[in-house]
Amino acid sequence: AEVYEQLVKGWTSEMAPLLSDSENALLYWSGQLLMFEQGIRFLTDFLLNDVYYRTTRPLHNLDRAMNQMYLLRAYEERRGELEERIGVL
């Protein structure tokens, strides 16, 4: 959670002047969306026989997709803590 807080802090230090209140309110959800989107992209590439992302072994993109979904689940499980950390910034 500390790494997450520092990442968000660094990003918002540069982006804050450009973000609306609505965008700031959706900061937690943007992380969730990116993890989900990347997982779907890896899965799609796996289903299309790995035409976009370079792979080094069979099932590489499937493993990547599954890892993104595990990461997303962990992110969702810590939602309260992560939103709290964003709130102090």
Descriptive account of the structure:
There is one protein chain. This protein has 89 residues and is an all-alpha fold. The chain has a domain at 1-7 and 42-89. Helices cover 75% and strands 0% of the residues. It has five helices and no strands. α3 (27-47) runs antiparallel to α4 (60-77). The longest helix is centred in the middle third of the chain and has 21 residues, at 27-47.
Quick synopsis:
By secondary structure, this protein is an all-alpha fold. It has 5 helices and no strands.
Write the layout of secondary structure elements.
Elements: H1 2-15, H2 21-25, H3 27-47, H4 60-77, H5 79-87
Helix pairs in contact: 3-4
Number of helices: 5
Radius of gyration: 16 Å
Mean pLDDT value: 93
Shape: elongated
What series of H and E elements makes up the topology?
HHHHH
Q: Helix share of residues?
A: over 70%
Sheet-strand content, in percent, reads under 5%
Structural class by helix and strand composition = mainly alpha
The count of β-strands is 0
Question: Unreliable runs, pLDDT <50, ≥5 residues?
Answer: none
Head-to-tail CA distance between termini: 13 Å
Reported for the largest beta sheet, the result is: none
